[in-house]
Design goal:
alpha+beta, Glutaredoxin, Glutathione S-transferase Yfyf (Class Pi), Chain A, domain 2, 2 domains, four-stranded mixed β-sheet, 10 helices, about 55% helix, binds glutathione
Length: about 220
C-alpha cells in the first residue's frame, strides 16, 4: 500500500490518513507529490484521480478523498478499531469526522496549516468565531463523555480528522478552552504525530498560497 501525500508542513488533508496508518501500525509506503515547484499541479493531476492529495494506492485500487481512504482502511483492518467499537460512538465519531471534512471552512481558509510557523494574533477572531463556537461545542461534548484523552476514549479516526485543527490553533495561538487545549496536547503527544512533525520541520519548501501574508493579502 502506498499513500501519495503533500508536503508535511502544509498538507492538512494528508496528515489525517497518514496518522491513521502510522498510529494503527499499518505497513505502507509514502510518496510525496509536492504542492510547490515547477509544474506541481500537473504532476499531481497526472498521478491522482481528482488532482488532489492524499491518495491511497493498494494494488490496482486507487482511493482518493481523505474520508474514503480512512473508511477503506477501517474495512481492510477491522481488528485495528480505527473507528470506535461501540455503534453509537462510531456514529458520533463519523458525524464529527464528516463535520470536519465538510465544514469549518472559515477557520481552514483563514488559518492554513503551517507546522513550522508561529503567528500569534494574526487571525481575526471575528472571522472564525462561528467555527470556533461549533468546534468547542462539538469536541467538548464528546470529551465530556470520553473515558480517555481522545474524543471517544482511545485515539480513533475522528481524532485524526481534527489533528490539523490542533496545529492551526497552535500556530496562530487561537484562544480555546482548557479542555480543548488538553485534547490538542494529547494529539501532539502521539508518537505518530511527533514523527510527522519532525519530518515537516526538515522540509524547506515554501507553499506561498499557504503562508499567512499571502492568504491575508488575497482575501477580501
Ligand atoms: N476533499 C479532499 C481535499 C484534498 C485537498 O484539498 N488536498 C490539497 C492538499 S492538503 C491538495 O491536493 N491541493 C492541491 C490543489 O489545491 O490544487 C480530501 O478530502 O482529500
Amino acid at each position: 500500500m502506498k499513500l501519495l501525500l503533500g508536503n508535511k508542513n502544509y498538507s492538512s488533508w494528508s496528515l489525517r490518513p497518514w496518522l491513521v496508518l502510522k498510529h494503527f501500525d499499518i505497513e505502507f509506503e509514502e510518496e510525496m507529490l509536492l504542492l510547490n515547484g515547477e509544474n506541481w499541479k500537473q504532476k499531481i493531476v497526472d498521478r491522482t484521480p481528482f488532482g488532489f492529495v492524499p491518495v491511497l494506492e493498494d494494488g490496482e485500487l486507487v482511493v482518493g478523498e481523505t474520508l474514503a481512504i480512512i473508511e477503506y482502511l477501517a474495512e481492510k483492518f477491522p481488528d485495528k478499531n480505527i473507528w470506535p467499537n461501540d455503534i453509537n460512538e462510531r456514529a458520533m465519531a463519523r458525524v464529527a469526522a464528516s463535520k470536519m471534512h465538510a465544514g469549518f471552512s472559515a477557520l481552514r481558509n483563514a488559518a492554513p496549516m503551517n507546522l513550522r510557523a508561529s503567528y500569534p494574533g494574526r487571525i481575526s477572531q471575528k472571522e472564525i468565531s462561528h467555527d470556533m463556537e461549533v468546534l468547542e461545542k462539538l469536541l467538548c461534548t464528546h470529551l465530556d463523555n470520553s473515558k480517555g484523552d481522545f474524543l471517544f476514549g482511545n485515539f480513533c479516526a475522528a481524532d485524526a480528522m481534527f489533528a490539523p485543527v490542533a496545529v492551526r490553533i497552535k500556530t496562530y495561538e487561537i484562544p480555546v478552552s482548557n479542555q480543548l487545549r488538553e485534547y490538542f496536547a494529547a494529539i501532539f503527544a502521539l508518537k505518530a504525530f511527533d514523527e510527522w512533525h519532525r519530518d515537516a520541520l526538515k522540509e524547506s519548501w515554501i507553499v506561498e498560497e499557504d503562508e499567512i501574508d499571502f492568504v491575508q493579502a488575497n482575501t477580501d
